[in-house]
Amino acid sequence: MAGKTEPWRQWLEGHAAALVLFARQWSATQADAEDAAQSGFLKFWRTRSKVRGELAYLYACVRSAAMDIGRGDRRRDARESAAATPDASAFEPAMERAERQAAIEAALSQLPGDQREVVVLKIWGGLTFAQIAEALGVPLNTAASRYRYALARLETELSEETARE
Amino acid sequence: MEQFESELSRLRPRAAGPEWTGKIAAELAAERRSDRTLIAAMSAGALAACVIASLLIDQSSTSMPPSSTVVVTHEVPQHGSNVQAFAGADLDAWN
Fold this sequence. Notes:
The complex is a heterodimer. Chain A is mainly α. In chain A, 73% of the residues lie in helices and 0% in strands. Chain A is built from seven helices and no strands. Chain A has helices spanning 7-24, 30-47, 54-80, 98-110, 113-124, 129-136, 140-164. The longest helix of chain B has 46 residues, at 18-63. In chain B, 65% of the residues lie in helices and 0% in strands. By secondary structure, chain B is mainly alpha-helical. Chain B has a domain at 17-58. Chain B is built from three helices and no strands. Chain B has helices spanning 2-10, 18-63, 81-87. At the A-B interface, α1, α2, α5 and α7 of A face α1 and α2 of B.
């Protein structure tokens, strides 16, 4: 048994950071995103034998959990009349390119949610368009076109940002 | 486009802390314990049911009365016995 990593740990080693980043889109804070990723992962682990596309299903579970937690957050925010503000960057700090990283993150946050989630799944989740389509429940062409629109929009946004500087 | 994609992919998402993995490990361990308890309880229940059933079967077989033997008390009529009976009968009763 020693030296053998449990299967669930292998899944987490490969996807934990991307799962939390994915969940972050519906979460006000990193802690909420981690809760959502945890809850989604546990649901995935209990029920994964019932599905064929495990990776797409994993992200679908996390998405569903993050949305549920996000809805709870909105109700809480409405009660407290306080807007949720992200607590910190969703990415590891890169000292040499901190400004560029901040600009990219700001541009990402400006994307429509349906485009942003495709970018996160493709770039950081490493999913194919077929897996993205399965995870989001959309046609493959829709997933691909959302990705293209999102990248074009990000590039435009960032080049304008660079031009302003 | 590809250059921009590779620039994006160089950004590393923030890693979840070790306590996050620890929470998942604890949840999964608790589920495994719960599953084992359930299996043990079901096995114990099945075993108890078998013991009770065997006791009931055993009890019902010992309390049943022994099978009775039919004893024929009358003699099987022999040849000529009816003649003897007639001879010994009170003939006056016929009159």
